[in-house]
Amino acid sequence: MTRSVYLASPEGNTGKSTIALGLLDMFTARVQRVGVFRPVVAAEGSDRVLELLLRHDGVDLDYEDCVGVTYEQVHADADAALDTILTKARALAEQCQVLVVVGSDYTDVAGPTELAFNARVAANLGAPVVLVLGAQGRTPAQVRQVSEVAIGELSARHARVAGIVANRCDPDELDAFRSGLEADVPVWTFPEVPLLSAPSVRDLMTALDGEMVAGEESLLDREAEHMLVGAMGINHMLDRLQEGSFVITPADRGDAVVALLAAHTAGDFPTLAGLALNGGFDLDPQIDRLVRSLGKRLPILRTDLGTFTAAKVVAGTRGLLSSGSQRKVELARSAFEAHVDADAVLAALDVEASDVVTPLMFEHMLYERARASRRHIVLPEGTDDRVLRAASTVLSRGVADLTILGVEQDVRQRAVELGLDLTEARVIDPVTSDLLEQLAQEYARLREHKGMTVERAREIVIDVSYFGTLMVHLGLADGMVSGAQHTTAHTIRPSFETIKTAPGVSIVSSCFFMCLADEVLVYADCAVNPDPDAEQLADIAISSARSAVQFGVEPRIAMLSYSTGESGSGADVEKVRAATELVRQRAPELVVEGPIQYDAAVDPGVAASKMPGSPVAGQATVLIFPDLNTGNNTYKAVQRTSGAVAVGPVLQGLNKPVNDLSRGATVKDIITTVAITAIQAQDAAASAGKDA
Predict the structure, then answer these.
(1) Rounded Cα–Cα distance for residues 438 and 432 (Å)
(2) 207: buried, middle or exposed (CB in 10 Å: 19+, 13-18, 0-12)?
(3) Cα separation of 507 and 535, whole Å?
(4) What distance, in Å, lies between the first and last C-alpha atoms of the chain?
(5) Pairing between strand 129-134 and 272-278?
(6) pLDDT tens-place string over residues 416-453
(7) How far apart are CA 526 and CA 510, in angstroms?
(8) Where is the Phosphate acetyl/butaryl transferase domain (predicted)?
(9) Which residue, 227, 230, 226, 219, is CA-closest to 257?
(10) Which residues have C-beta within 8 Å of that of residue 317, sequence separation ≥ 6?
(11) What are the φ and ψ backbone dihedral angles of 446, each rounded to 5 degrees?
(12) Cis omega (within 30 of 0) on the bond before 615?
């Protein structure tokens, strides 16, 4: 049976999209199929809130299926509109386990009739209502008064209120707002986060009917946190600059334009979000030449509006969470996680967790475990935008503490340009770091038997992979994630020289967590060892079983080959057969089968005919490939044909966690690998404590 939840407000600008996004995160971590529905949308253009929610990784639905009717249809015939909404919502619900319904937006005008219509929709869908109230500029008593009126209206239309959200509260009065509502249902309070309502430079360009004449297009999504009219003297203008300022200045004020661009690039002044040249003038050719030299990345807009009109437009433009800003989405998600008890929400809405494990459930499990005991991870590739974006998310969601390697001014300026918040990250330049001598001395000591000197070590350890690995080796960081820019060899060679393998492990190997539609499998080795012998293959199997247990997968090991059981022969089959026996001898507690073909390992039907009665055949969870070529090709083929999400590669067997990324890694890949590395570090610390 599909469970639905209806988000309703008695007025506009309450921040329902923030709550909807948080609910989607929460539900996709616990159930397999989650949908989203907008009963009423504007007739013109697409609905930005719905577009934001449909971009969520846990939602796989078409836009048209998720829309009910337009405002015009409601005004023309409310009963017919209601019938259409119910028909479409129920059809959508058949595809989902949980449906999040986001009520209408009032087009910024409060109206009791609109709330009544939302109540009728919720009541007819049988969806409990989460009432979202705007607290900005209100006292707790005023918010309570609004809630009483809204609850009365909802109840009169037979809608059941299951929870109340007071959003955009004064951060210092969250408890007062919570206690002031005094409801019989759960109450959650969220602080006002000014950035969530700040417009992006792209929003302002649209509002000004302007065009970009210089700069980097991707930086249009940075938020304009402050506005400044640059019509005063340059000295006073520079005094008033703040981080993230959007400055409006006449295009014929060449002196102001050059001064602003110089300040933006200087490093000692706040960086700008954008610059609007108003008045419809063209820049003087020489000034234009300077602008294109100094402002290569800063978005510079041109508008025909005068100064007063342009300032009025900018001041009246409100940003939306749906504008595409990564930082806004991170803030919204972290606020929800910080202020909402997920178990209480699930209980209030009567949603049961699913037995299956989807890719998103697996990822959420990783994030929750990583947050439980935050570890310090070093990211050596601070010049890569993907790494910076991932770092911003890791920090905002509390997954780990971070050190980023790179020139601090360059790293931080690029992060600000991208609209990212890396204030909590430590940034270290290996070349100038106070740690350089300590790391060089340690590396020289470790490699003394190879003739290494301190002088030569100083040259080597400024390499970011060596610098980061040595930080992990010396306990200055708990783990390292690299490889977005560098090769696997460049990432892991320093580990072989310094960190070494864990006790009882003779070989470093890799595994992928293959997240299928309803389960997680472990594939190994798919990235490191080209052709392991029987001893090494057994080691890989045992390490992979430990990795499976570490991340919640019950290990049933299939030692793969082109033959099943006793049906085949040859050197490759004998290698797998010998490795299987070694696993049984070294780890008798593990369930292992081999040699076995891939189809017999994962397909119950094939297993019933090829290897009946096996505790592994047809239900293997840890698949060990006989060589790198077979493993690499198989995991890619499974990804391509089944849509599986491959998490990894994850290095196993090292004494401390270092993990390698593929050079095609996405931002999400990096975030997930940081979480995995943090969990490995947690377990390593716990194991060290037990040993001590």
Answers:
(1) 13
(2) middle
(3) 10
(4) 51
(5) unpaired
(6) 888 888 999 999 999 999 999 999 999 999 999 999 99
(7) 6
(8) 362-678
(9) 230
(10) 199, 203, 204, 207
(11) -65, -35
(12) no
Q: Is the peptide bond before 532 cis (omega within 30 degrees of 0)?
A: no
Q: Give me 597's structure tokens.
A: 């073909």
Backbone angles phi, psi at 40, to 5 degrees: -135, 130
Residues contacting 160, CB < 8 A, separation 6+: 122, 123, 128, 129
200 DSSP 8-state letter: B
Residue 525, preceding peptide bond in cis (omega within 30° of 0)? yes
> What is the C-alpha separation between 318 and 17, in angstroms, rounded?
14
Q: CA triplet 643, 331, 551: central angle to 5 degrees?
A: 45
d(CA 513, CA 434): 38
Q: Tokens standing for 599? A: 């189809």
In contact, 50 and 21? CB cutoff 8 Å: no
Residues in the chain: 692
Sheet holding 591-596, edge to edge: 591-596, 556-560, 622-624, 520-524, 509-515, 645-652
Whose CA is closest to 509, among 499, 523, 498? 523
Distance from C-alpha of 188 to C-alpha of 179, rounded to nearest angstrom: 10
Give the Cα separation of 384 and 590 in Å (integer): 41
- Which residues, 6 or more positions from 349, have their beta carbon under 8 angstroms from its beta carbon? 3, 5, 128, 162, 163
Alpha-carbon distance of 404 to 228, in angstroms, equals: 33
For 497-511, how does the pLDDT look when each residue is reduced to its tens digit (9 = 90+)? 999 888 878 889 999
Strands (E), 26-74: 34-41, 67-70
β-pairing, 34-41 with 67-70?
parallel
Does the pLDDT at position 108 exceed 60?
Answer: no
Q: Is the pLDDT of residue 56 over 60?
A: yes
Beta-strand (E) ranges in 469-569? 479-482, 509-515, 520-524, 556-560
Q: List alpha helices for 63-188, DSSP H.
A: 71-76, 78-93, 112-125, 140-156, 174-181
Return the beta strands (E) in 288-332 as ranges: 300-302
Q: Which residue has the tokens 């055949």?
A: 617
- Tell me the residue type at 469: T
> Which amino acid is located at 54 in the chain?
L
User: Which sign does the torsion angle of CA 322, 327, 332, 334 carry?
Assistant: positive
**Tokens 């309502």 found at:** 197
User: Are 398 and 371 within 8 A, CB to CB?
Assistant: yes
482: tokens are: 């690299």
DSSP element (H, E) containing 7 = strand 3-8
Hunting for tokens 């433009």 — which residue is that?
317
pTM: 0.82
Q: What is the pLDDT of residues 172-191, one digit of tens each?
A: 999 999 888 877 888 999 99
Helix axes 454-461, 464-473, angle to 10 degrees: 110
- The C-alpha atoms of residue 691 and residue 502 are separated, in whole angstroms, by 13
DSSP summary character for residue 183: -
The amino acid that residue 460 corresponds to is I
**Continuous segment of H or E residues that includes residue 633:** helix 628-642
What residue type is 96 in one-letter code?
C
The residue type of 123 is A
Q: Are the C-beta atoms of residues 299 and 246 closer than 8 Å to each other?
A: no
- Strands (DSSP E) contained in 129-244 are 129-134, 161-169, 187-191, 211-214, 226-229
